[in-house]
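Thread: pyridoxal-5'-phosphate complex, take 2
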Amino acid sequence: MERVYNFSAGPSQLPLPVLEQAQRDLVNYSGAGCSVMEMSHRSKPYQAIIDTAQATLRRIMQIPDEYEVLFLQGGASLQFSMVPMNLAKRGQTTAYAVTGQFAKKAFEEGKRWGNAVAVVNGKENGFTRIPDITADMIPQDAAYLHITGNNTIYGTTFNTLPETGNVPLVCDLSSVILGKEFDVSKFDLIYAGAQKNMGIAGLTVVIVKKDKLTDDLDPIIPTMLRYKVMADKGSMYNTPPCFAIYMAGLVFQWVEQQGGVAALEKINTKKAGLLYDYLDDSKVFHPVADKKDRSIMNVTFTLPDDDMTAAFIRMATERGMINIKGHRSVGGCRASIYNAMPIEGVEKLVQCMKDFEAGQRD
Ligand SMILES: *Cc1c(COP(=O)(O)O)cnc(C)c1O
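Output below.
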């Protein structure tokens, strides 16, 4: 089988040059005599790998010096717990924008630790739009407002960041980090699982303002779950996810070679535009997300019934486009078109949709 266009929401398609570089490095990394997977994380070559990965990420996201970059494990989901434990006192008020399923999961974990309140809950509208959030809706004594920058399952996104007043802003950027530009200085903490737009599963990147790091935490919080410990130890309090960090480093370099995040955002906007333009005119395919809140990373759409949906997914699969099926909670289809999805893949998908629609009329 040839390589396919993989529209999976995550783990997702990687840039081919990254895979090829990893292949060249696999058995004997840069003359080290062993692979990255076998190398001591305390060795010189490994230190260079993690340092370079961090430096490249700092450049491509223009991360200010007042921020620490951490390479952690446990997925974005562990950050649902680490954020409240590190940023809020036990029982303190924390605020959440519940705009999707991952947002809801973050909120539920927040409740375990503090007095988590939902400032908006998009459930009533099926999470198809981002409700407006104004500073007066946010308890001003909240330790933070948590938002999900891009709702991977529903295909909605915060096209403008909420005004929080004096409340720190925490953001789950798992499915849009490096896909469009963000001003890091607007956030107190950003986190993202790597397997969507930064590499492979096993790595979570946390970008946190240094003034949020403290040892003055509830003693019950395990050492491994303390940002300050991880920051002090250069993300190597214990063995880090060595290979996943190496892969992310290759992806960061690839992003830089593409012209950086701004250049990729342009292409991503164009890619998403091809799909949305078609969806807006189609009689068979219908977009799920409200126009103003549409994601450029995850494009969700439905067909009139399950049989047609299955038939379309079969047709796309036969043409070498896989993982178009929507998340089980939304149904329909979802095309995740992260950085590594070339525009040709999206053009091919739109053509497939056109052919499918034409077939319905015959
Ligand atoms: C995928 C995803 C998660 C969960 O990530 P894990 O790394 O599997 O824990 C959380 N938030 C968002 C927005 C996601 O897209």
